[in-house]
Amino acid sequence: MRTARVGLRVTPAQRRRCFGLLLAAGDVWACALDMNRWRRQRGLAPITNFQQLCRELHKAGPGAFGDLNSPCAEGVLRRYSDAWFATAKRRADGDASARFPRRKRRLLPVRFRYGSFAIDGQRLRLAVARGRLPLWVRLDRELPYPVGQIRSVTLLNEGARLFVEVTAEVPVATYAPGTEPDPGRVAGVDLGVIHPYAVAGPEGEGLLVSGRAMRAEAHLHLKDTKHRRRAVAQRAPKPGQAGSRRWRKYRARQRKLEARHKRRIKQAQHEAAEQVVQWAVERRVGTLRVGDPRGVLELKAGRRHNQRLRDWRPGYLIRCLKDKAEQAGIRVELVDERGTSSTCPSCGRRVPKPAGRRFTCMHCGFSGHRDLVGGANIARRDPGGPITTMKRNPFPVVITHRRAGRHLPGAGPSRRDPRRRPHHGTAQGSPGRPRPAPPPQWGVARPEARINQHGRPTTNVA
Ligand SMILES: [Zn+2]
């Protein structure tokens, strides 16, 4: 199952109806919460069973939730019921921190199952309650999947923008005999901030995906947010006070920019994962062993480091890599990454973590890229075991460099973000007026940039 997000192009009337649907879904959720609160206050057992919830819904009669039809309203109740039972199970297993659904939300995504939507080119019809006018909306791009494979469509909003998430059943990639990924060829993947993915593969090949553009985007976004917040701090409403019109405008702008930032980072992370999978497929790597760093995230590390970890989102990096790898027929294994970046891949002894990008062993004199050292050690680690001495890949000497976030402002030739003022005006040497970065070109063969591990460009190997 793969999911893609597609924007909607809507007229004002269609926009009102779409938001009406989201609002109605929020109402259904709120009704379920309110009903169970009312019951609890009277000492009655909550209604959480999906069928019973549906029965209660149908007591409300048709038309109670505007355009929202019964299957979609039932979908919201299904979500409520699933969430309730998941919490009940976690509580039964002794997790006292699990909470039952309790928060109301004004707008809730609406899921349209197979049969309750129709797709005609770039037009999409969403099912509405019986007797209502049909609702057609326009998609802002071609769907990336064949129409016959699409299983569900989810309408949602981000700030004031409307999207649909299209879920499709995509068969696993097939390969010509002799070119399919070989599970015996293992590559180790080290997740990091500077390099979201550093991959050490078989036969001394490595891949480094640079995440510097993503980090710059995160820094600039934080800086901008702080500036905006400082500018309106005076106007912030006191508790219990209604916000001014100006305050509401600020909040709307904040939400819009937050959503844009999230989209940009997400896109860059997906591109980075795609590059890893492409690289692995070209080299017939059938197993990606990923070091899972999520254990260290629980530690308190101070506000600066906490912010860094929040921007990093390693869980999401793992998830997108897993999705894309499985689609390509590559297995992903998670292993404990503790100690992998401070162990020498050559002699296996512990070495203090390097401050820069270069790892040097004081015992045997080995030297290499720090993130690839992590990757090489992860490749040799068994899921759930220590670093073994089992068949080790030679340390990468041929390294492919890729960049994530080529769409990000400032990642282009100027390498400056247009949100920063060009500090030299039109003076010589100044990047000048801000330009958008060139769009990434998928499927077009890029010249292979290959650099050996000492950073010197070699003659083109390919
Ligand atoms: Zn060593």
UniProtKB/TrEMBL annotation:
For this UniProt entry, which residues form the secretion signal?
A: none
Q: Which UniProt keywords apply?
A: DNA recombination, DNA-binding, Transposition
Location of the region described as Disordered in the Swiss-Prot/TrEMBL record: 223-249, 400-462
Respond yes or no to whether keyword DNA-binding is given for this record: yes
Which residue range or ranges hold the Probable transposase IS891/IS1136/IS1341 domain? 172-295
Q: Which InterPro entries match?
A: Cas12f1-like_TNB, Transposase
Domain Cas12f1-like TNB residues, every copy: 317-378
Hey, which family's this protein in? In the C-terminal section; belongs to the transposase 35 family.
From the Swiss-Prot or TrEMBL record, give the protein name.
Transposase
Species lineage, top-down?
A: Bacteria, Bacillati, Actinomycetota, Actinomycetes, Streptosporangiales
